Amino acid sequence: MSDTILSQDHGDWVEITLNRPDRLNSFNDEMHLALRAALESARDGGARAVLLTGAGRGFCAGQDLGDRDPSKMEGAPDLSRTLTEFYNPLVRLIRSLDCPVVCAVNGVAAGAGANVALACDIVLAAESAKFIQSFAKVGLVPDGGGTWSLTRLLGEARAKALALTAEPLPAPRAAEWGLIWKAVADAELMEEARALAAGLAAGPTVGLAHTKKAIQAAATNTLDAQLDLEADYQKTCGATPDYAEGVSAFLEKRPAKFTGGQA
After folding, report:
1. Residue 184 falls inside a structural domain
2. 50/128 same-domain check
3. Can you give the CATH number for the domain in which 109 is found?
4. Where are the beta strands (DSSP E) in 10-54?
5. 145 and 212 share a domain?
6. Residues 101 and 218 placed together within one structural domain of the fold
7. Which CATH number covers residue 227?
8. Among candidates 144, 88, 79, 89, which has minimal Cα distance to 111?
9. pLDDT digits (tens, 9 = 90+) for 97-108
10. Which of 8, 71, 168, 223 gets the highest tally of CB atoms within 10 A of its CB?
11. What is the rounded distance in angstroms from the CA atom of residue 146 to the CA atom of residue 111?
12. Which of 137, 123, 152, 134 minimizes the C-alpha distance to 54?
């Protein structure tokens, strides 16, 4: 695997680190492919949770613009290719994983870096971290699902203001507004994020995966469609060994020991 990505196997869960700290972990093609490969490896290896973070003083500064500099190209760059070949498959992969993806934003998350973080299921951020929709500074629109995530999480007014002004949003305010789960003291971020990932990995994997899918589907489903979906998913989850174990543990007043097994 490319050294632009570090992957550490913790047994039931995997920690993946963006590793271009000299460039604030900005994406180039190599890091894109390495991150996708690490996520696919975690999926194929049966990981029950994934933790994504960044090396050094920042989480991710978005696209490495040195690789997309019009002054060094013959003609204008086709930025839609960057999205269709790299960012869009990455966001879709994160959202489709059958396990929770935790993101620990350890510093600035700018441009597509912010929106890759927001594609994850639970986002923790260091109190010193900032989220910046920096696209307006270079004449672009938010990508990486940013226009979708911002609007659904914050509403149109705040989404437009953040995108049009590129004003940095401090992590505590991002948590207050509901953009992320919580802001954590810098020194405690990774300890809390790892404990969260480990706790999720010890949970009822099928139930958690279907909960993730159901909540994501709610953005476009009608109430009737969502009620039917819940019934279908509950049937699947109710047939798993983890449901039987969870009920037994509840009745016996003991901690459950989930295995993550399918029905």
Report:
1. yes
2. yes
3. 3.90.226.10
4. 13-18, 49-54
5. no
6. no
7. 1.10.12
8. 144
9. 999 999 999 999
10. 168
11. 9
12. 123
Rounded distance between C-alpha atoms, residue 6 and residue 131, angstroms:
23
Chain centroid to CA 63: how far? 17
Counting other chains too, the contacts that 200-203 makes at CB distance below 8 Å and 24 or more residues apart are 200/13, 200/48, 200/49, 200/99, 200/100, 200/102, 201/10, 201/11, 201/12, 201/13, 201/47, 201/48, 201/49, 201/99, 202/12, 202/48, 202/258, 203/48, 203/258, 203/260
- Report the distance separating Cα 205 and Cα 90, nearest Å: 22
CA distances in angstroms from 226 to 22, 152, 229, 243, listed in the order given? 45, 17, 5, 22
**What is the Cα 242 distance to its own chain's centre?**
25
56 and 125 housed in the same domain: yes
Summarised one tens digit per residue, pLDDT across range 35-86 is 999 999 999 999 999 999 999 999 999 999 876 666 666 767 789 999 999 9
Asked if 15 and 51 count as a contact pair (C-beta separation under 8 A), the reply is yes
- Structural domain span for residue 226: 205-252
- 8 A C-beta contact, residue 120 and residue 92: no
Q: What's the pLDDT at 103?
A: 99
Residue 53 placed within a domain: yes
Predicted pLDDT of residue 99: 98
Are residues 27 and 145 both part of a single domain?
yes
Q: Do both 226 and 103 map to the same domain?
A: no
Same domain, 26 and 91: yes
Q: φ, ψ for residue 165 (rounded to 5)?
A: -100, -20
For 133-159, write each residue's pLDDT tens digit.
999 999 999 999 999 999 999 999 999
Tell me, yes or no, whether 219 and 178 share the same domain: no
* Backbone φ/ψ region at 253: left (φ over 0), alpha (ψ -120 to 50), beta: left
